[in-house]
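Table S2 (text version). Query chain:
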Amino acid sequence: MNNSELILNPDGSVYHLHLLPDHISDTILTVGDPNRVVQVSRHFDSVEFEATHREFVTHVGYYKGKRITVLSTGMGTDNIDIVMNELDALVNIDFMARAVRPAEEHIKLKIIRLGTSGALQADVPLGSVLATQYAVGLDSLMQFYPLMETGFETQLATSLQAALDMPFAPYVVRGSDLLREQIGANMLVGNTLTCPGFYGPQGRVLRLALRQPDYLTRLRTFGQDTAEGHFRLDNFEMETAGYYSLGRLLGHDVLSLNAIVANRVTGEFAPNAGAVVDGMIAETLNRLVA
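Corresponding structure-token output:
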């Protein structure tokens, strides 16, 4: 790989994350907000490594004997493109040889997003934690990668494009069933819409009117009966579809957990949003070592 493709810093670390292969574990918790990294690592029994570069803050430590990495990503799937590619490079590319490691040496990471989210349905309660089964991307990231969708996923994407009268097709991808069953047991399971912004793309109106005044209603009422049951959109945020699609392409297990701190149907915002996130973090750590 040319120097302009695999960019390394003078100390040999990967360009944006500023990490070396030994700096991460095979289990990685990701958060959007850099300040939330310490919310996770304060639970660790010990912290062996810390790094900060741009919005990417990394702590590596041990929780009840298990080595865990927590990493901040910033917001949006453009940042997830950086994070997922560079995490994969740390374990599946030989930096000295600048070559992809043989397939038989492939390392599969477990990546769990711990994020906040708004509900799109009135019956998704404030304060709950939702584990994402399918993610729907309204961003353009998968225009640049050969994502192989199942027939079911393609059908959903086509139907949603028609329902929203969009000039481009969304993409739909299922996350890791293994992680969802392990970490998301007894949590709400739902389908998450990933938006390329916080205001217009999530139907918020301050001073700018939306192109479609009934945009939120279209999202909330979108539904399709399938062999797995009735598909609907339960919540939205800004990263999950990027995680799930790149996880599939790169061969990693990925799960998105969403602390529901707002309900866009009822207009409510959780007064104890911080406590909801704290509870999600503690429960995830305990389930990882159970």
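Notes on Table S2: The first helix runs from residue 37 to 41. The chain has a mean pLDDT of 96.
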